[in-house]
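sorry to bug you again but im stuck and you know this stuff better than me. what follows is a protein written twice so to speak, once as letters and once as structure tokens for the fold. id like you to explain what the token line says about the fold, in plain words if possible. anything you notice is useful, everything is just below.
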Amino acid sequence: MRHKNNFSDKNELGKKILSGYIVTIMLLASFVMMIPTALAADGEANSLKTHMFDPFDPETEVTTFGDGNGIVVNVTFDITDYTGDDPSYKVKVVAQDSGEWVWVTVNDSDVLGPAPWNEINEPDDGKYWGAFIIGQDATANGSGGQPSYLHLENGEDAQIIENFDGDGNNVTTIITAEYVGTIRGWVKTNAEPPVAIDNALIQIDDGGGVIASVLTNATGDYIFNENISEGTYDVIASKQDVFEPIVADGISVMTGQTSWSNFSVPINTDITITGYVKDRINHSVLRNAEIMVYKMGYFEGYFNNGPSQ
């Protein structure tokens, strides 16, 4: 089930920063196009890696991205064969299922803007940098200062293709769209005050069966932390010998967002407890025995069985 993504403030800020970078890189690319150059370099690119735009970590390669994520592309040439002073050029990103594609401009020069790799970039070092966005909106090549945006369905792969000198010896890598969110909540009794129920079983059902399960902790809380794909689910709470399964249906999960599903377990307090206490040796009835009462494993109180006769 597809949902329209609503970017968080953080994603909106990241998109604006990425757009600012694109404006600068497009101006640089336009300037380069005024100079007769050939897209040629000595040797071939020897690596093509992808990183998260925000937060940016050049040491960590990332190949799985969420809805609205900015993706940094890094193309590296063997510096011993690299001539330097080459212009900006473009790599191609192709959705594997739909065939939709976008161009991504990469550049080896200093970028005067908010590009996250500015602090580590050195001109003519054989490292080209660029960025684009994936998500569930319509595919669009970058223009007017906007970064390229590739539409990918949840779970769909995209191939990034680099062919700097046009000889067909491509360097490629694969990224995957994984649009996930979080489901969390608690399980407590409906008494006043509520009592947390630990070790309750929480299951996620996607309509075809249970796909994930956890137990509540000592405070009755549970969480499926950023590992549930976008969609609509039933959340089921149960605890053997304590309460029957309770179903919260139609819980919607959106990428990067948290959906809550809390369970208030009804406890029947209108009950009567009867019995007797005997000496286990001669089986005589014992009076004034202290009787302790526990409800669902939690101490509730005590009473005695009357005075001696």
